[in-house]
């Protein structure tokens, strides 16, 4: 359906007639003004000290926790996230805030001896100023917060530009943050490309999660300005199943990673590579597991696969599986929403888009490799390198046979989906650009290092 660039309209993907949010776009000039206000506000925010920033983030965690049911229901309605997943995301968001609430008390530098003579060498990390965050719709709370929390903890101000499809979620999250933060420290700029472009030209650091095409443009603009930028831009993730794996258990993990949230995660499984004799048992088990996951109303607690975010997204999934050998799915789901059945295909010709491009839906390709070495080469054959799941009982294979994998994350006997918030997140090749997100790695991106050389006033120095 046509869009008006001057307005942001989000619809319920389970019931497209239900308009969740309709408001004016911020505009490029107002976006720049928000960044300018943030630059002024950040100085007082940083000067307030560690205790003030820690207390504010703790209060934000409490506010999100108090609004948990409301936030989960809103995510179900606006972005079609299954209710159980939506509740888990809100809970995770609270945990992320509490984790980073301790960050202001961490050491911000180190002390060193000079190479020669007397004196003292110090390093100190300082906030960059204003962090611009451009976030997707699929994790409307967790992704903005895992970017914003370390930025705020370090003393930066934040300007958030969410995906239009998740505007209502971002509005409510912003209201909760602004209740506990000083004016100007956390700002929201609803919009599309004009607001995103303006933000990248106005802030002091940019963190982006979204499509590869848009991420590339963000990186180029930020790099030309000489400001730090990180971009997470997707994956074409593989699940490797070795012959010694339990086919039913592996199938359950992989089906969840294909169909969960209708495959709308950058960590979803898109390629399944059966090694050696694993092919036959896995084919049957995985097809059965996917047929047992209907595309259903996301408001039901038992739903795993809800609607696609848009009609265009659904048609892309259906077109991708057209005229291929179907093992499961391949059809529209029931109801008025943008549903597509979880789909598994095989005998996909070389060069097919499913083997090269991220579809971002509940569809995967079943492939075969004669041995683990061949499976690793097949995994590495795409331009993405985010995450690989491996299913095996062989510890040696898990620890050493996977050394050649060119992916940022490897999950053994677990779905490809699922992220540990306290560990670095990111991939290789076109999946990621710049420093890792999350965990102890995150604060480094939002700060810069100052090196001090201290000498006595009476010493002769050069």
Please outline the major beta sheet. Answer: 7 strands, mixed
Over all CA atoms, what is the radius of gyration?
23 Å
CATH names the topology of the largest domain as Aldehyde Dehydrogenase, Chain A, domain 1
| Number of strand elements | 20
Fraction in helix: 25-40%
CATH superfamily of the largest domain: Aldehyde Dehydrogenase, Chain A, domain 1
Strand order of the largest sheet: 12-13-14-11-10-16-17
The CATH class assignment of the largest domain is Alpha Beta
Could you walk me through the main structural features you see in this protein, from its secondary elements to its overall organization?
The longest helix is centred in the N-terminal third of the chain and has 20 residues, at 28-47. The strands form five sheets. Strands 12-13-14-11-10-16-17 form a seven-stranded mixed sheet. Strands 7-6-5-8-9-19 form a six-stranded mixed sheet, sandwiched between helices. Strands 3-4-20 form a three-stranded antiparallel sheet. Helices cover 37% and strands 22% of the residues. The protein has 14 helices and 20 strands. The protein starts with 6 loop residues before the first strand and ends in an 8-residue tail after the last strand. With 462 residues, the protein is an alpha/beta fold. The chain folds into two domains: 8-233 and 431-451, 3-Layer(aba) Sandwich (Aldehyde Dehydrogenase, Chain A, domain 1); 237-412, Aldehyde Dehydrogenase, Chain A, domain 2, CATH 3.40.309. Strand 16, helix 13 and strand 17 form a beta-alpha-beta unit. Helix 3 crosses helix 4 (83-100) and helix 3 (68-79) packs antiparallel against helix 6 (167-178).
């Amino acid at each position: 359906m046509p869009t008006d660039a001057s307005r942001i309209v989000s619809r319920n993907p389970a019931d497209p007639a239900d308009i969740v949010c309709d408001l004016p776009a911020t505009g490029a000039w107002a976006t720049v003004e928000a960044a300018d206000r943030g630059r002024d506000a950040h100085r007082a925010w940083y000067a307030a000290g560690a205790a003030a920033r820690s207390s504010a983030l703790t209060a934000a965690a409490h506010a999100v926790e108090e609004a948990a049911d409301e936030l989960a229901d809103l995510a179900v309605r606006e972005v079609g996230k299954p209710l159980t997943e939506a509740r888990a995301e809100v809970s995770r968001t609270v945990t992320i805030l509490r984790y980073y609430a301790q960050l202001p008390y961490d050491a911000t530098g180190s002390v060193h001896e000079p190479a020669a003579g007397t004196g003292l060498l110090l390093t100190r990390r300082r906030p960059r100023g204003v962090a611009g965050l451009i976030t997707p719709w699929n994790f409307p709370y967790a992704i903005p917060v895992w970017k914003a929390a370390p930025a705020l903890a370090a003393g930066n101000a934040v300007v958030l530009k969410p995906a239009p499809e998740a505007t209502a979620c971002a509005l409510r999250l912003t209201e909760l943050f602004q209740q506990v933060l000083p004016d100007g420290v956390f700002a929201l700029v609803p919009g599309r490309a004009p607001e995103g472009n303006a933000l990248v030209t106005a802030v002091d650091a940019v963190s982006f999660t979204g499509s590869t095409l848009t991420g590339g443009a963000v990186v180029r603009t930020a790099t030309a300005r000489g400001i730090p930028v990180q971009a997470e831009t997707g994956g074409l993730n593989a699940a490797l199943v070795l012959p010694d794996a339990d086919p039913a258990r592996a199938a359950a993990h992989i089906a969840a990673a294909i169909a969960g949230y209708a495959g709308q995660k950058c960590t979803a499984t898109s390629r399944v590579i059966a090694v050696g004799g694993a092919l036959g048992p896995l084919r049957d088990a995985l097809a059965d597991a996917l047929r047992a996951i209907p595309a259903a109303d996301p408001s039901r607690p038992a739903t795993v696969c809800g609607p696609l975010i848009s009609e265009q997204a659904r048609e892309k999934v259906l077109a991708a599986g057209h005229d291929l050998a179907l093992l499961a799915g391949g059809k529209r789901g029931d109801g008025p929403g943008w549903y597509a059945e979880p789909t598994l295909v095989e005998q996909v010709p070389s060069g097919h888009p499913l083997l090269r491009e991220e579809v971002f839906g509940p569809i995967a390709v079943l492939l075969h490799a004669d041995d683990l070495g061949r499976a690793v080469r097949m995994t590495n054959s795409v331009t993405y390198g985010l995450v690989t799941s491996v299913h095996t009982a062989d510890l040696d294979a898990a620890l050493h046979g996977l050394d050649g994998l060119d992916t940022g994350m490897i999950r053994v006997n677990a779905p490809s989906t699922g992220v540990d918030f306290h560990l670095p997140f990111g991939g290789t090749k076109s999946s990621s650009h710049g420093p890792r997100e999350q965990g102890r790695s995150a604060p480094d991106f939002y700060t810069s290092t100052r090196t001090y050389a201290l000498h006595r006033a009476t010493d002769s120095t050069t």
